[in-house]
Amino acid sequence: MVKRYKKDLDVSYTLGMTLTIELLKYKLEYVTRIFIHSKLIKNDAYLYIEEVCKKNKIPLIQNDKVFNILAQKENCFVIGEFNKFKADVNKEKNHIVLVNPSNAGNLGTIIRTMVGFNLKDLVIISPAVDIYDPKCVRASMGALFHLNFQYFENFQDYTKEYDSRYYYPFMLQASRNLNEVEIKEPYSLIFGNEATGLDLKYLDYGQSVIIKHSENIDSLNLPIAVSIGIYEVTKEKFK
Amino acid sequence: MVKRYKKDLDVSYTLGMTLTIELLKYKLEYVTRIFIHSKLIKNDAYLYIEEVCKKNKIPLIQNDKVFNILAQKENCFVIGEFNKFKADVNKEKNHIVLVNPSNAGNLGTIIRTMVGFNLKDLVIISPAVDIYDPKCVRASMGALFHLNFQYFENFQDYTKEYDSRYYYPFMLQASRNLNEVEIKEPYSLIFGNEATGLDLKYLDYGQSVIIKHSENIDSLNLPIAVSIGIYEVTKEKFK
Prior knowledge:
2 copies of one chain form a homodimer.
Chain A: E1 11-15, H1 17-26, E2 31-36, H2 44-55, E3 60-62, H3 64-70, E4 78-83, E5 95-99, H4 104-116, E6 121-125, H5 134-139, E7 148-152, H6 155-161, E8 166-169, E9 176-177, E10 187-191, E11 209-210, H7 222-234
Helix pairs in contact in A: 1-2, 4-7
């Protein structure tokens, strides 16, 4: 019926009612099946799902075993299954670039902030966590369904395909403070791995930037650093 | 020997080498025991721990069972045990106020950002997650050991004990945008629960503030919102 989620599957899952409604609203053409648990309370949100499924001939299946396989510990009574979609980034738009992100929850949280501030183009440099991991989908709170994203084998491949951009690597070794730097468009804000940050070679790309903080911590948490960066560079647009 | 962590215990735990070193550096007087796993590699970091334990007569105990009880899934070979400490907030200082935070990882991440920007006074309004939960200690990356914090039964009790302050509740219903508001000191930046935010009654306290974002998301993740707030109000001090 279903298998435990793995990166090489063609489908992924939305675990939960609200998330599944976001899926049906924004990626309807990719939805393959909806599963419901026998304990589901059939409220208005459920009736909406039922109606959309009926109208679009999407199978709506009651099967508790699916929940044991996909959502063991979760308090979850609706699961959406969808085909993985492809949505390349735009050349003209501003990008967030994550180099080797390793945590699915962090990635989802970053996507939620990006979409929250209308930055909808994400580049991921491999090796990296799988953006379709249901933990990422969930942490994004459905923001993934508004996102363009693209994986690259290495940073050079990205710069070759998307040239004529302004690069801003965020690094503890950077010389300029975030709120002193003039950010030109289209920009690429670049962030390293959770544990290791960016390699020193990124000092050679564009203008490196630091978010200054006290010496009582080694670094900011990755989603926090990315979100502060996004907030600072987009805030003039949100008034 | 040890029990699985619970809120009503007098002790809590640092799971991991780096975190345990932070504990020994900043809260030495509260440390009761250090546990090591038989698989621990005795590197320089370990030798530092051994030296501090010897010098301060702290029991250093090899016992793999302790790790099964306290750190099941974690890749963890050192655990510090410490007595819970009390560290009331300062009247004169700026405060972060969290109303009913429910997630230990989120709380730890917020503490990490606070200490990162030299905001070291945290007020928590109950019901709320336990700040000594090892998941919170760990997510704080040791920043908890630099923090003053205090729990209150309700917001009124806090305002009675700490009056003469400027209150800034962060709410989606607020009228003023974060980057337009003049923040006066000593301030209290107030944030609601992860799922429900702040009750409308908080509109009556001080100057409510919104971090404006697009309509594609319902709200920002709590640690992200708190961190953006902290960044904006402290950034003049980090140049």
